[in-house]
Amino acid sequence: MSDATIPPGDVRALPVATLHRWLTGALPSLVSGASTITVEQFPAGFSNLTYRVDVDNGGCAHSLVLRRPPHGVAGGVAHDMVREYGILEALQGTGVPVPAPLACCADPAVVGAPFYVMELVEGRIVRGAPPPDWARDEQGLAARMRQLSHAFATTLAALHAVPVHGALASLGRPQGYVARQVEGWTRRWIAARTHDVPAMDRLATWLAAHQPASERVALLHNDFKIDNLVLDDDGTTVRAILDWEMATIGDPLLDLGTSLAYWVEAGDPPLFAALGLGVTALPGSLTRREFIEAYGQAVGEPVMNARFALCFGRFKVAVIAQQIFARYRQGHTTDRRFAILGDVVPALATLAAQELEGTGRGR
Fold first, then answer.
1. 29 with 80, same domain?
2. CA distance between the termini of the chain
3. Same domain? 229 vs 80
């Protein structure tokens, strides 16, 4: 993957010897007592911690990925590793590109929290800038970004077309989903805020008063953005969708809204580029309006209530940023990247206010 790894710091370090013993029992065909393992962290994520586990069986080497909750978080669906592992299991054979789940451990005694292990899908993860070989050809880069944008929209549409039955049907309660989401994210905003942001309060009030009358039912990823995709070298095919911790069953309009909130375009505040989200602002990328149209074409009908979707998405992403910033302020993480999130919240709220006033570019 294009994501570089780093040695885990003291706070995030995994007990390698204990993990090794567990792996030999859970995955004996991949890890033996004679194997050596090396653990490094993928540092780019903002929520659950992700590690690369390299296994050397005396010249036969392979790599695994381990996921565990962040430190300082006690429970919650978004950090339920057993649930996330079950989602990956349920998606096998559906056509949705996901890593193969390999083993799950609900016992926090092994590494300090429940965790699971999955296959490492090789490919590119594109964040704030295009890969160097893409960037060397400006004209080719624009064409590639156009293809990547369309692949993103069609993959999201395909995800929303997956039949919801069996284990997937147990992921959530679709009836009343939109109302619960608006109320839930408003409640989380109130609980996590460290400073007043009047625009966020106005946005919460508007969302409560403008919910769509009808709801569709689909499998939702709930964090579908460019850097949660593993791409092929050309960026035209999605090899795997990562980070399923917030997946559920509900109205796909809100899943689309979350993706729109992460979709940066030219003219947006430079602050968002600092979060590694600016690649979609490159020439050739779809605008948010074009992305909505491409998604609608892929699902076979125009998107209704796009303004509500985008405003909800920005509100939700702002609350997520605030929750992480609050953990940073409380000392549960020392990652300096999180310091900037206190400024992201009012910036997202301001963009949403522009949509409400009819001066935004998202619809």
1. yes
2. 34
3. no
